[in-house]
Design brief:
Chain A: Keywords: Cell membrane, Membrane, Transmembrane, Transmembrane helix. The complex is a heterodimer. Chain A has 14 helices and 4 strands. By secondary structure, chain A is mainly α. Chain A has a single domain, classed as ABC transporter involved in vitamin B12 uptake, BtuC, CATH 1.10.3470. The longest helix of chain A has 27 residues. Helix content of chain B is 56%, strand content 11%. The chains are: A mainly alpha, B alpha+beta.
């Protein structure tokens, strides 16, 4: 087995565009879950509306990409209002179930033949980000150190993705250390205490849902700009679970949690993926037990196991404080 | 204090402004887009061909024909893209040459290498996709992924179709109800939202599938296989409670932490099932082909009537148990007020264990019935899970009877929607009902109002 190849694949995965997209989604979720204590299990819905906001604006209506980004953000705000208005008054369980249902409803409608003129149905939409790639300042070629290389195209997406991650991180830092941030953290700790101090808990929760949702929608945009293809089935509920896993891994309720979580998560996932594929190719694992097609399923099973073990043994993740992660929900 | 409040108001105003600007900008360019369409007048068809690993595949032959006459062809370049100009708008057939595909990729559906009747509107540069998968993930062309094979009938009258849809809705609802009752009781007694409940359903169906139909299995008749599956499901439920949830509760793990743990467990179990069983759906060997029986406006196969009868009997049995037996009363007492039940001398741990065993057994039975009504697939339980959630929220969280009422509502809405809307959306409408109910009656149909938020 070629360990150098496995390692360089893992590092490439950890700093690649996909990790940046997940980091953005996790930064948004961190506002919801880490700071406000909202159980949003429909983060993928925000990513989906953001992604399709861009894709539909450009592919179907022929707008410029940048206007598409605005449309995506707008869709995320509308979604947060629609979702939050009824459920944020209810106990946290209701929000969890309603948001995961909303994510599935959106995915099913976006992939239906009804929506095909707009969303491309199960085929999705393609090649809508040319405007972005035309701005690529890097001359064609491969960039990198040793065996960790990126094409100029990937590099440009990474600049966008990680640039947005940096912006969002600074934004969240300022937000959390503002009076507004203190209020939402107090809501997480004790909603009734915040209410008894005269804070309108409902409005704060709604604002938190909107802000985190918009950041999440940028994650979706980076994801589809990277592949130049928006497909409804790449936004299934498992994406939300991945985002949760990496957020908990990095440390929910910490500024750098999502960033560290995304990098470590994708390093580990790609590492095991590559290791498993090499082991199968080299014949260490009989292909009767796990063939190449099943190797993909192993990734999901391992993420599930990882999430389970993390929550049992170290719910605060790498960076978190344990007392902040004993959640009983209100 | 004041600054926080005015700050939030300022934020709200800013967001509203942003919304207004966004709405305007969304409306204005929409009109100019229509104008732009007529400017382009060169029709073409093109796309990017990507393998199962999403890497583009070069050197694939793509051909366009119209009524059998060749129009043009192209070969994908290094980025996997191809484009073929077309002479005029109309209907074309687009096909890839299967021989030029690498061995590791085949069309997702059999016959998927040819797309017939691709409609090209004037000026359209249409993008078409050939979804490729690994060779052993290919499905038959008629097996629509994720949707129930309800035959699209055009012949019978609306009344007939309504009666059929209603009956299958009730059947679907009764299967959801069997699974959801356990989920609701578990929530009622432990306050855990068990996200892995769908996997208990799948495992039940899979155990019966292994015993009944799998090549390596013993090939037992389905009824006995189902009984063994229920026993296995009950054991698994009890095992999960004793081995995982009880120790975690004793450690004082928070409720939401437990919820996330169940999500991890769900992901793990579901994909272990996928590794073992593969992604190909299967069906049981018994009761597959049956004649339809006629009852006035209703017609159904004996299989469907048996599913309905078994499900209804089970539900009545569960209700009787909850209402009449000692353990049933204890379950209701613990759901009502755990602390009060404990001080009255009820052994709460034993009650919770009973609920898990009951829930596991019911979920397995639901899985077998669902597998019999449709197909046995690795993600069948997960698809049912969201409908179960919808059902128990509809009925009121934690109430077993509410779960039953909610399940029938969800099942009937799902199937009646197929009268007017595509089958692929039936579950979406059922979930939409959930959101609507949360808007108008958040505590659910049978739920009690409690102070929340």
């Amino acid at each position: 087995m070629d360990f150098a190849a496995i390692l360089s694949a893992a590092v490439t995965g950890a700093i690649g565009p996909v990790a940046a997209a997940y980091a953005l989604a996790a930064i948004g979720l961190n506002i919801h879950f880490g700071y406000t204590g909202l159980l949003n299990f429909g983060q993928v819905a925000f990513m989906l509306v953001g992604a399709y906001g861009v894709a539909i604006s450009v592919s179907v209506f022929g707008l410029s990409l940048w206007l598409g980004v605005l449309v995506g953000v707008l869709c995320a705000i509308v979604l947060a209002l629609l979702l939050g208005a009824p459920t944020l008054r209810l106990r946290s369980d209701y929000l969890a179930i309603a948001t995961i249902a909303a994510g599935e409803i959106l995915r099913l409608f976006y992939r239906s033949s009804y929506a095909e003129p707009l969303t491309g149905g199960v085929f999705g939409l393609q090649r809508f980000a040319n405007e972005f790639y035309e701005l690529n300042p890097f001359p064609a070629g491969e960039y990198g150190i040793g065996s960790i290389t990126f094409s100029n195209r990937d590099l440009w997406v990474m600049v966008l993705g990680w640039g947005l991650v940096a912006l969002a991180t600074v934004f969240v830092y300022l937000l959390i250390h503002s009076p507004w941030g203190r209020v939402i953290r107090s809501i997480r700790e004790d909603e009734n205490a915040a209410r008894s101090l005269g804070k309108n808990v409902y409005v704060y929760k709604l604002q938190s849902l909107i802000l985190g949702g918009v950041i999440g929608s940028f994650g979706g945009m980076v994801m589809v700009i990277n592949t130049q293809s928006a497909n409804p089935d790449s936004f299934d509920p498992v994406v939300t679970f991945f985002v949760y896993t990496l957020l908990v891994l990095g440390g929910a309720g910490r500024i750098a949690g999502p960033l560290l979580g995304a990098v470590v998560f994708w390093f580990v996932v790609v590492f095991f993926d590559a290791l498993l594929r090499q082991a199968i190719a080299a014949g260490y694992i009989s292909s009767d037990i796990i063939g190449a097609p099943q190797a993909g399923a192993v990734r999901f099973a391992l993420v599930g196991l990882g999430l389970l073990l993390l929550m049992v043994f170290r719910p605060q993740g790498i960076l978190g404080r344990k007392e902040e992660m004993v959640l009983n929900g209100r | 204090m004041d600054s926080g409040r005015s700050g939030s108001r300022r934020l709200a105003i800013r967001l509203l402004l942003l919304l207004a600007i966004g709405l305007l900008s969304a409306i204005l360019p929409a009109t100019s887009a229509a104008a732009q369409d007529s400017e382009q007048n060169t029709e073409s068809v093109g796309g990017t061909i990507r393998g199962p690993d999403t890497e583009p595949i070069p050197d694939i032959q793509v051909m366009v024909t119209k009524n059998g006459a060749p129009i043009g062809e192209d070969t994908t370049d290094a980025e996997g893209t191809w484009e073929i100009p077309l002479p005029e708008p109309g209907s074309y057939d687009v096909a890839i040459d299967p021989d030029s595909l690498p061995d590791s990729a085949v069309p997702r559906e059999q016959g998927g290498e040819r797309l017939t009747d691709v409609q090209i509107t004037p000026g359209q540069q249409r993008i078409v996709i050939f979804p490729l998968v690994n060779p052993n993930e290919q499905s038959d062309g008629d097996e629509q992924q994720g949707s129930t094979p309800t035959p699209q009938q055009t012949g019978p009258s609306f009344g007939q179709r309504f009666a059929d849809a209603l009956l299958s809705g009730i059947e679907y609802g009764s299967v959801i109800a069997i699974c959801a009752v356990g989920l609701s009781l578990i929530f009622g007694t432990t306050k855990l939202i068990n996200f892995a409940h769908g996997e208990l359903v799948t495992i039940g169906a899979m155990v019966a599938f292994f015993l009944n139909a799998a090549a390596a299995g013993p090939g037992i008749q389905l009824i006995f296989a189902a009984i063994l599956a229920v026993v296995a499901g009950a054991l698994l439920g009890g095992l999960l409670e004793r081995g995982l949830w009880r120790p975690l509760r004793h450690r004082g793990t928070g409720r939401i932490n437990l919820f996330i743990i169940s999500i991890g467990l769900s992901l793990l179990l579901r994909h272990v099932i996928l590794i073992i069983h593969g992604s190909r759906p299967g069906s049981y060997t018994d009761y597959n082909i049956q004649e339809q029986l006629e009852f006035g406006p209703f017609s159904a196969a004996p299989r469907d009537l048996s599913i309905l009868a078994i499900a209804l009997l089970t539900l009545v049995g569960v209700a009787t148990m909850l209402q009449r037996t000692r353990i049933g009363t204890a379950i209701r007492a613990v759901s009502d007020d755990r602390d009060l039940a404990e001080t009255s001398g009820i052994d709460v741990s034993r009650v919770v264990l009973t609920v898990w065993i009951l829930g596991g057994g019911l979920a397995a039975l639901g899985g077998v019935l669902f597998g019999l009504a449709e197909v046995v697939a690795w993600d069948m339980g997960f698809k049912l899970l969201l409908l179960m959630f919808a059902a128990i929220i509809l009925g009121g969280l934690g109430s077993a009877y509410g779960a039953m009422v909610g399940s029938f509502a969800v099942g009937i809405v799902a199937h009646l929607s197929t009268l007017w809307f595509p089958v692929e959306l039936q579950n979406a409408w059922a979930l939409l009902v959930l959101i609507v109910v949360l808007l108008v009656r958040p505590q659910g149909i049978l739920g009690r109002k409690e102070r929340v938020g």
